[in-house]
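Researcher:
Attend to token order:
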Amino acid sequence: MPVASLFFQLSAEFKSKSKSKCESKFQSKAKSQKLTLLTAMAATLAITSGCQSIKTANTSHQSGTMMQAQNADQPNKLERFNITGKIGVTTPASDSSGAQGGSAFYAWGQQDDRFAIELIGALGIGKTNIEYDGQTATLVSEKTGTLTADDPETLLKKATGWQAPISQMPYWISGRPAPSDSAPKLDAQNRLISSVNGEWTASFTYKGSDKRPSKISAVQPQGNKVVMTINH
């Protein structure tokens, strides 16, 4: 059974409600099914999860409560998770058109290096399922059919023209820098508040004293932008 089929019942909620009501019901439904989704993914993928050890190092204080982190003490990377939320993408203006944007509700199931994402109202191409098995990424939508690529970033750009740092997201969702990040910064509560990965600069928003971010915003100098809300 394809991993993405775990989210089929979630998509039915979006088709029957308006966008505002849909988002609320989607989030409520997803929270109640969180344990069920995780168990189903474990049975489907049949892979053993692990924990990534936490590396520690000295930190240097920045202005105010901000600190620059170099492998600082951070939360464990989540090897398994099921999250929901909304994602918005903006692309820069070109010679032939102005800046463009789109948004979608999503359900994301992750287990180690494998994941399945279902997008509803998916950035102009309709309902979309994206799967990655650690080696090959597959995207299926009504508009594009089935597409494959070596990595999810190439696949998303091939299908939609959008750019997003998908490979870094499992780390950022966990509240820690990706291994390829540079210049991560922490707040006074030792939470990641910004990090740089190549041309992407990510910033993180938290609810109360939560250790995992509720919102991630990532931008490139050229004008590409991704904003992702997260319901853990």
User: Anything to note?
Assistant: The radius of gyration is 18 Å. Residues 1-71 have pLDDT under 50 and may be disordered. The CA atoms of residues 54 and 132 lie 25 Å apart.
